[in-house]
């Protein structure tokens, strides 16, 4: 089974990806893992990526696409299938992935799209607070400190502040929407309601995937 998993930050993509891998035995491929492995194994694309990273430059799309294709060509993918997580990030990468899969003779069978309203994600992602003295992490809504806590004793990282989170979600939506539309045209997208208990979300995913096997 060859799959993509998509969803905005905070939608629970990582949690569900782990459950899919455990249940269906596919290879979990994340971009970070791919880069680390390619560089550690000193593949052609890994060495090229390292040359950019060492200079502090962004790795160009063609190198990222090459690393993905290199990984998808390995023996375990043919044997087990894959769940691709964190790629493609742009519509250009989606077209490159289509071409790579065609070259490798691999067929994509489904795109799991975990959907949650962005306002709920904003609440999830911007609620994290950190105790100034202990460094302990809490969440204003889901894991608050003791009742009547003093807000002055806590701080938020810049990345967790509502304006930063809102910007991040907007960027992700602008990049992700065309990718979802692209795969929807191919009849591959399965929308999953993400604002449910983790086990219910996985049960919905399980039903979809069990029909693809």
TrEMBL record:
Domain of life, per lineage: Bacteria
Residues that coordinate or bind ATP: 10-15, 128, 137-138, 196
Keywords for the protein's UniProt record, in alphabetical order: ATP-binding, Cytoplasm, Kinase, Nucleotide biosynthesis, Nucleotide-binding, Transferase
Catalyzed reaction equations: AMP + ATP = 2 ADP
GO molecular function, one term: ATP binding
Subunit structure: Monomer.
Domain remarks: Consists of three domains, a large central CORE domain and two small peripheral domains, NMPbind and LID, which undergo movements during catalysis. The LID domain closes over the site of phosphoryl transfer upon ATP binding. Assembling and dissambling the active center during each catalytic cycle provides an effective means to prevent ATP hydrolysis.
Protein name in the entry: Adenylate kinase
């Amino acid at each position: 089974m060859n799959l993509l998993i998509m969803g905005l930050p905070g939608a629970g993509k990582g949690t569900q990806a782990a459950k899919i891998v455990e249940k269906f035995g596919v290879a979990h491929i994340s971009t970070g893992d791919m880069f680390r492995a390619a560089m550690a194994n000193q593949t052609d694309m890994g060495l090229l990526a390292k040359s950019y990273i060492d200079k502090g430059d962004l790795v160009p799309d063609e190198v990222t696409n090459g690393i993905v294709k290199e990984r998808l060509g390995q023996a375990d993918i043919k044997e087990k299938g894959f769940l691709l997580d964190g790629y493609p990030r742009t519509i250009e990468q989606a077209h490159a992935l289509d071409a790579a899969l065609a070259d490798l003779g691999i067929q994509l069978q489904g795109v799991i799209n975990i959907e949650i309203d962005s306002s709920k994600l904003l609440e999830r992602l911007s609620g994290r607070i950190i105790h100034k003295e202990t460094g302990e992490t809490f969440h204003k809504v889901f894991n608050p400190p003791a009742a009547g806590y003093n807000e002055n004793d806590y701080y938020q990282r810049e990345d967790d502040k509502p304006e930063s989170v809102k910007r991040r979600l907007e960027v992700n939506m602008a990049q992700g929407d065309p990718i979802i539309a692209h795969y929807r045209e191919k009849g591959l997208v399965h929308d999953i309601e993400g604002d449910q208990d983790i086990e219910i979300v996985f049960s919905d995913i399980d039903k979809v995937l069990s029909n693809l096997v």
